[in-house]
Amino acid sequence: MNAAYWTIIAQAFLLLLAANAAPILARGWLRGRFAYPVDGGRRMADGRRVLGHGKTWRGMVAAIAVSSIMAGLIGLPLIIGFYFGVLTMAGDLLASFCKRRLGYAESSHAPGFDTVPESLLPLLVLKESLVLNFLDVLIATGLFFLLEEFLSPVLYRWHIRNRPY
For labeling, which of 74, 122, 126, 162 is most exposed (least CB within 10 Å)? Predict the structure, then answer.
């Protein structure tokens, strides 16, 4: 594995970090402003919210914008960053939807379920554009999972995250 290989993995990883950090940073900077829930507060037949209060349009827009900017900064086309942000948020929304249906409380911790869909979906869909193979996708997804599991408690202690997970 040469330097070019690790550059490609690093680019994918940086896009993951950008798309996932942006909603957290936007919440901190904007406080309650523009925090309109994606699900509009709607509930399903099971009485639970469709997605939950933590999934906001502010976070969606922030993820898409920041991943687009990050793509440009690391030498990828902005459109790749745009799609990466959209797909990351689609994976995150899918995980939230499934967690609500399975009875998990809003903002509850579900190791793997909280990180794998939002990293796996964009990496799989864009693997050719990012020049990744399936093993690369698994490596980047695994690294992202480990980073989230170990970094989240630190970010919580630094008052960046609301929860230690």
Answer: 162
pTM for this predicted structure: 0.88
5 and 132 in contact (C-beta within 8 Å)?
A: no
Bridge partners of 49, per DSSP, are 43
Q: Where are the chain's structural domains? A: 3-157
CA distances from residue 83 to 67, 68, 79, 80, 88 in whole angstroms, order as listed: 9, 8, 6, 5, 8
Burial 4-18 (b: 16+ CB within 10 A, else e): eeeebbebbbbbbbb
Q: Are 105 and 163 in contact (CB under 8 A)?
A: no
List CB contacts of 24: < 8 A, sequence separation 6 or more.
155, 160, 161
The H-or-E segment that residue 26 falls in is helix 3-30
pLDDT tens for 99-150 read 999 998 887 888 888 889 999 999 999 999 999 999 989 988 998 898 888 8
Counts of helices then strands in the chain (DSSP H, E): 5, 0
